[in-house]
Amino acid sequence: MGLIRRNKKGSDTILQNSDKWELMSDSGQVVRSDIDFTQMEVPKIASENLQETADDVVPNFDDSKASIPVESDSKKVRKPWIKRFDAYIMKKFLGTFIFAILVLLAIVIVFDINEKLDAMLTAPLQDTVFKYFLNFLPYFANQFAPLFVFITVIFFTSKLADHSEIIAMMSSGISFKRLMVPYLVSASIIAAGTLVLALYVIPPANVKRIEYTNRWVKNKRVDFGDNIQLQVKPGVMAYIARYDNTTKRGYRFTMEEFDGNRLVSRITADNVTYDTLGRWKLNEYSIRKFDGLKETLRRGSLIDTMLDVEPRDFLISKNDQEMLTSPELRHYINKQKARGVANLQQFELEYEKRFAMTAAAFILTVIGLSLSSRKVRGGMGVNIGIGLLLSFSYILFMTVTQTFALSGYTSPRLAMWIPNIIYTIIAIFLYHRASQ
Q1: Cβ(429)–Cβ(362) below 8 Å
Q2: What is residue 41's DSSP assignment?
Q3: Domain limits at 384?
Q4: Same domain, yes or no: 203 and 271
Q5: How many CB atoms lie within 10 A of CB 251?
Q6: How many structural domains comprise the chain?
Q7: Mean pLDDT by 10 residues, the chain (436 residues)
Q8: 145 shares its domain with 88
Q9: How far is CA 406 from CA 127, 214, 354, 411, in A?
Q10: pTM
Q11: Radius of gyration (Cα) for the chain, nearest Å?
């Protein structure tokens, strides 16, 4: 048995404002068709009966103890700190960068072996692998990491644009500014890695690499010096006529101490010897002290002195700046400047270069994304060509400004940051153009 509402005759629609219902049997026959619920009397239930019914359903209910269940923090669904879109871009960025670096290193190994084949056949294989290549490859990769960041961004972004993925991202509501976020995060990861390597890891590794090349390829180490004059400390000047680093011995040593313009003492020795403890031994020495017109003379055959001078302070080789960590490099530059030593441009350039190349990763990332985010006629080959052209122009700017610094026309800091300043202006222009 069942109740259905009466329909309009010959139609499946229900009569408007119809309160007539029909009683149907299980077989579908109408048993009664004049049921009108509006005319039926609903028996009234006393309020006390309602309370008794509620007590039967929920006995002894105390509303003061009622509480709404609150989901604990541990069961809350937390949003991931990185979105799928960001992870996709970062995976493409970092994966392409690592692949490009590995391909570059494979090519470099082939050319480097071909260039130094005679030396590598002479040197022990263990030294070639562990002393040279194990330290040379990180050094080379770190030197050109910012430029390969640029090429990487252009390559995989052009590929995304060619497959209309950039258009799909923009159509979904992602702005160009938001698109830049995973790029800059990836560039930050690479920049932080290269900075740590450049400041602290690569310099100690360069010691072994340069030692190998000086021994087996070409010796660029400076082992001899003539007419060496430097300031030991304020008011104290030292002079060595000739120094041989292979024997750690110097000849015709003189050290003079001044009080203003007045000579206070003068020490001379036929020869001096430097030991690994940082001591200078004076052989056949004489010490003269002056007090007005009075002079005191003392002679001897051997005396030890603790001079704050090392052979590397006056025997400067071509690649010495690459073997010092950044704190050591800063300390060395300040110490040499205090002594009045000139020709420190190479050390200052190396110090500034480590920071300037790190900042270049961010600048070149913005330029790369701004150039390659749009699909262009001719495919991604055009974007890659533009990227290579800008990369070579960046290297050219860097080389020219370094030459100016070495010649004394500009400071090393300005020389290393001029390319970044110019390319920052280019990056701002391209960013505003691409975001419109």
Answers
A1: no
A2: P
A3: 83-217+323-436
A4: no
A5: 14
A6: 3
A7: 49 45 56 52 49 47 50 55 86 93 93 93 94 94 89 89 86 90 95 94 94 92 90 89 93 92 92 86 93 89 86 87 94 86 87 92 92 76 78 86 87 92 92 86
A8: yes
A9: 34, 24, 17, 9
A10: 0.75
A11: 42
